[in-house]
């Protein structure tokens, strides 16, 4: 699977392509002015430079499927390791929720208590889910020899560098591998079963 470390350039490239199309449609059937020609040349050069940068940022990852019991074991370990982070996130969210209730002049104690509980729970669960996902991916992404490519800490750093859209591609590839019947990857001609004799 190919991931782009500079994926943000894709948005810039798309914008430049739109500008080029707009420029071409405005000049359709007309003789191009000197300034329009210079603008088009500048946009083409910028597009080519960004395209080269994007391609240079490409990194190939090998994602392997993991057995469900291994995923559960890794998730349990990750949740345990992240419990302090999750507790701190819950405390911070609870404090923020209390402050927001005060600002909004919420007077009902039950409503405040429920808002604080919900905020703390959501924050804690988000931290635990993120850490579990990073730990599982750190076991699923392997080198050409099959060895783990990243520790959980390295995966966390990689996640911050890649950004969420690129991480979602990795999570998606892992999910597809672990939730798809392995037989679906075997060509029909090589699957066991009755065959028409000719």
Architecture overview:
The protein is mainly alpha-helical. It has seven helices and four strands. It folds into two domains: 59 residues; 117 residues, no CATH class. The strands form two sheets. A two-stranded antiparallel sheet has the order 1-2. Strands 3-4 form a two-stranded antiparallel sheet. Helix 1 runs antiparallel to helix 2. It is flat and about 70 Å long. The two termini are 40 Å apart.
Count all strands and give the number: 4
Q: What is the typical, i.e. mean, pLDDT?
A: 84
Radius of gyration: 25 Å
Tell me the β content.
5-15%
User: Which secondary-structure class do the elements indicate?
Assistant: mainly alpha
Order of secondary-structure elements: EHHEEHHHEHH
The domain count comes to 2
Low-confidence stretches: none
Task: Give the helix proportion (percent range).
Answer: 55-70%
Counting H and I runs of at least 4 residues, what is the number of helices? Answer: 7
| Biggest β-sheet: strands ordered side by side in the sheet | 1-2
Largest sheet: 2 strands, antiparallel
């Amino acid at each position: 699977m190919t991931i782009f470390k500079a994926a943000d350039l894709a948005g810039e490239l798309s914008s430049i392509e739109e500008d080029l199309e707009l420029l071409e449609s405005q000049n359709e059937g007309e003789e191009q002015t000197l300034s329009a020609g210079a603008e088009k040349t500048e946009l083409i050069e910028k597009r080519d430079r960004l395209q080269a940068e994007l391609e240079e940022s490409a990194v190939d990852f090998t994602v392997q499927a993991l057995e469900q019991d291994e995923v559960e074991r890794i998730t349990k370990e990750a949740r345990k390791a992240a419990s302090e982070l999750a507790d701190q996130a819950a405390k911070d969210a609870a404090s923020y929720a209390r402050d927001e209730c005060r600002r909004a002049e919420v007077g009902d104690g039950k409503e405040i208590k429920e808002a604080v509980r919900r905020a703390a729970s959501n924050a804690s669960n988000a931290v635990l889910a993120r850490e579990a996902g990073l730990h599982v991916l750190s076991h699923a992404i392997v080198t050409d020899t099959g060895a783990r490519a990243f520790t959980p800490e390295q995966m966390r750093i990689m996640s911050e560098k890649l950004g969420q859209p690129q991480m979602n591609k990795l999570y998606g590839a892992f999910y597809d591998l672990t939730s798809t019947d392995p037989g679906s990857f075997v060509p029909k001609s090589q699957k066991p079963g009755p065959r028409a004799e000719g």
